[in-house]
């Protein structure tokens, strides 16, 4: 049936809006054990932003390095257990960073109230109870994690989100000043996640007027940011990118992602490639599925002098290719959207293996 999806409860957007956090969280401090858990990308540990946190003496501030790997179930369980054992249940969780940090904040807010390991809840609507208050602050834009209903975790068996309506943030602060320091390559790859979300949302059977309206506007912004004569990492474009990311996320929520994301999940799960970069590695070879999007993607690569590696598959074993194809094949909902309900007649494990061999 139709998706009945939950949106973020409150959003504040604009330069300097980060400064409103103290005021926003104050009424929530009376909840649970009267302290906040701040989860922040380690990049900010020695930066000015960390001096502007509205943290009080009772609060817990954790700087997390997201670069070694994407968030794992084990990492969430360990952090949750540590906080519960030392301080009890927080009033709320605040995640300040990219998709990884926002997913950690979303996941842990659910795991404070749902017993056992987060591996038990990887999937759709498996979470039993609402989590605690959680607030997200993106500092790099593109994944749409700020708006999505999922907190993507890599577990021992699968890379799959804790997906339900309680995953969605209670509050998001969109302050474009925070993304100014993103290095150019990450700015490109993460922004391309938005672009690919929209292309995939638009190209498939679940596309509809609602998802289309968001994708259309987000794609327009992406073109201004990455392709037009005023493209590049400017303040004006940062203002747009935060909105494009949000709208791309809303578009795919009401439609679905497709072939590129299925392949990307395989690259992340088996080879540990980061989501947005993995998308770019895959997307460049998907001319059979997204020809128009690919032409534009190539122009954007050229414009920003980004070179993606080629012939990677030469160094992959047959076992790795099979394992990646298996991960991708199992994402039935993506193939269903991209190819149609009869996708299994058209797409086999071998088709997918061949797509990996193109990389
Ligand atoms: P990330 O959070 O994994 O890493 C961001 C990188 O950029 C880090 O190196 C970080 O230190 C750096 N960074 C962040 N902000 C910065 C700033 N302002 N200045 C300088 N450096 C900065 O990256 P991402 O691409 O945003 O997120 C990827 C993750 O998001 C993956 O784990 C993926 O699974 C997840 N994801 C989730 C959803 C969802 O809907 N929940 C959607 C897509 C992807
Ligand atoms: Zn994505």
Please explain how this structure is put together.
It is built from 13 helices and 9 strands. The protein is an alpha/beta fold and 359 residues long. The chain folds into 2 domains: 10-179, Rossmann fold, CATH 3.40.50.1970; 184-357, Up-down Bundle (Dehydroquinate synthase-like, alpha domain), CATH 1.20.1090. Strands 1-9-6-4-2-3 form a 6-stranded parallel sheet, with helices on one face. A 3-stranded mixed sheet has the order 5-8-7. It is globular and about 55 Å long. Bound molecules: nicotinamide-adenine-dinucleotide and zinc ion. Nicotinamide-adenine-dinucleotide (NAD) binds at residues 41, 43, 66-67, 70-71, 97-101, 103, 139-140, 143-145, 148, 150-152, 178-179, 181-182, 186, 190, 193, 274-276. Residues 143, 193, 197, 261, 275, 279 line the site of zinc ion (ZN).
What's the arrangement of secondary structure elements?
Elements: E1 10-13, H1 21-25, E2 36-41, E3 60-64, H2 73-86, E4 92-97, H3 99-111, E5 123-124, E6 133-138, E7 150-154, E8 159-163, E9 171-174, H4 184-202, H5 209-226, H6 235-254, H7 259-271, H8 275-283, H9 291-303, H10 318-329, H11 332-339, H12 343-346, H13 349-358
Parallel strand pairs: 1-9, 2-3, 2-4, 4-6, 5-8, 6-9
Antiparallel strand pairs: 7-8
Helix pairs in contact: 2-3, 4-5, 4-6, 4-8, 5-6, 7-8, 7-10, 10-13
Features:
12% strand; binds zinc ion; 2 domains; six-stranded parallel beta sheet; Rossmann fold; alpha/beta; binds nicotinamide-adenine-dinucleotide; 9 strands
């Amino acid at each position: 049936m139709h998706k009945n999806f939950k949106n973020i409860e409150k959003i504040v957007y604009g330069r300097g809006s980060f400064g409103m956090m103290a005021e926003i969280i104050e009424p929530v401090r009376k909840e649970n054990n009267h302290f906040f858990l701040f989860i922040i990308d380690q990049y900010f540990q020695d930066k000015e932003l960390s001096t502007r946190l509205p943290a009080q003496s009772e609060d817990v501030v954790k700087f997390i390095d997201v670069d070694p790997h994407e968030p794992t179930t084990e990492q969430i369980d360990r952090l949750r257990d540590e906080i519960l054992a030392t301080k009890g249940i927080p009033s709320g969780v605040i995640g300040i960073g990219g998709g990884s940090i926002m997913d950690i904040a979303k996941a842990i807010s659910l795991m404070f109230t749902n017993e056992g390991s987060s591996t038990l809840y990887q999937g759709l609507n498996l979470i039993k109870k609402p989590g605690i208050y959680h607030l997200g602050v993106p500092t790099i834009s593109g994944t749409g994690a700020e708006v999505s209903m999922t907190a993507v975790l890599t577990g021992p068996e699968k890379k799959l989100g804790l997906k339900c309506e309680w995953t969605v943030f209670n509050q998001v602060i969109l302050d474009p000043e925070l993304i100014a320091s993103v290095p150019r390559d990450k700015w490109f790859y993460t922004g391309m996640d938005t672009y690919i979300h929209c292309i995939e949302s638009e190209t498939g059977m679940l596309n509809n007027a609602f998802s289309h309206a968001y994708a259309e506007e987000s794609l327009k912004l992406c073109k201004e940011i990455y392709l037009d004569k005023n493209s590049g990492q400017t303040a004006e474009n940062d203002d747009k990118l935060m909105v494009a990311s949000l709208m791309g996320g809303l578009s795919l929520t009401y439609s679905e992602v497709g072939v590129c994301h299925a392949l990307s999940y395989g690259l992340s799960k088996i080879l540990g490639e980061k989501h947005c970069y993995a998308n770019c590695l895959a997307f460049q070879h998907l001319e059979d599925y997204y020809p128009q999007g690919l032409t534009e993607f190539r122009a954007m690569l050229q414009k920003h002098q980004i070179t993606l590696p080629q012939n990677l598959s030469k160094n992959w074993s047959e076992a790795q290719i099979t394992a990646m194809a298996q991960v991708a094949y199992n994402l039935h909902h993506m193939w269903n959207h991209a190819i149609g309900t009869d996708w299994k007649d058209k797409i086999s494990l071998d088709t997918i293996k061949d797509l990996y061999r193109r990389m």
